[in-house]
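Practice problem: predict the structure.
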Amino acid sequence: MSDFKSFLKSGHTPTLFAAFFYFDFCFAVWVLNGAMAPFISEAFNLTPAQKGFMISVPILAGALMRFPLGVLAQYIGRKNAALVEMSLIMMALVGGYFFISTYDHVIAMGVLLGIAGASFGVALSLGSGWYPPKYKGLAMGIAGAGNSGTVLAVLFAPPLAMKFGWQAVYGLAAICMLAPFLVMIFFAKEPPDIEHQSFRQHIACLFEKDGWAFSFIYVITFGGFIGLASFLPTYFYDQFKVTKVEAGQLTMLAALMGSAVRVVGGYVSDRVGGINALSGVLVVVAISLFLCGLAGSSLTLTTLLFMVCFAALGAGNGALFQLVPLRWPMTTAVAGSMIGEIGALGGGFVPNAMGMSKQYLGSYFWGFASFAILALLVLVMVRIMQIRWTRTWAEKGGRARTA
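Answer:
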């Protein structure tokens, strides 16, 4: 407790809270189309492949927009960049409320929702910028817990869509975005750790094998989290014929596990090593996904398996970012941002694989199986790479080296 008090005193708590609040609401907007997918699919009579593509568009757009927003933040400040982003999000949501009338409009709206997905790097850098190096990890973890915005989207969007219509949810979300916007204006202060990275410096980790290795791991842990969280409302609704609201509630149970266990993953990794933690995570993810594909007749078993899978994915995100500062101690922020951008692209794989599996093979099983196989391939890569990692920058298992 005393250590946590020291942490709070060492930085600027209102800015950290503002960063979390901003990231939480942006994350909710980012997955809004996924949360409302059963309503949108019914309105336009979409095929499984169209559903998968529609859900993947905001994920892919958000990943691609992270870098431009990060560059903007270097020139106008992270607080101002966050305010610009939220202003654009609110305008996009208002446009969605008034103008969407076709499937093509929904796809275009998905691109605009991607603006909200760009918030990752700015939120974490803003939240941790006031804290000394020994507390930056904890500050980033608290700001990063804003991925719990997924829970807000899948819990509230379906009942609101049921009562007011799914297009009205865009308008309601625009009003809700005023809350983090005002909190950012009145409570956040621009951190003093101003950095101006060139394009070459920003992508430097991708000129190294380790940069790509970490990105592939993040494709599984975060890409799996965002991809599955966006697709599950559709899966529960189509596979088990539950109501649209119940589909959101079941998704919430799984997404909540992923958000809550992220901190645990980092805590465990400090003690057993991030490499060991990730190895266990990838095994659990692969097994649980294979079993999800086989348990398509049991709603209870499938829900429990998804909760296990999401817990593993959340722990994996925590474990990965325990390793990033060890590998790139002097450029943790830029390395983490670039890995986050490339890894997030993996989230678009899941809904597309699931949709095509259902449409062309008649079952969702091969969608689950393909991602499970990908997780096993990444596991093999981790076990091979860790031989060199533990000889150069980490202790056995991926623990931090002692002086």
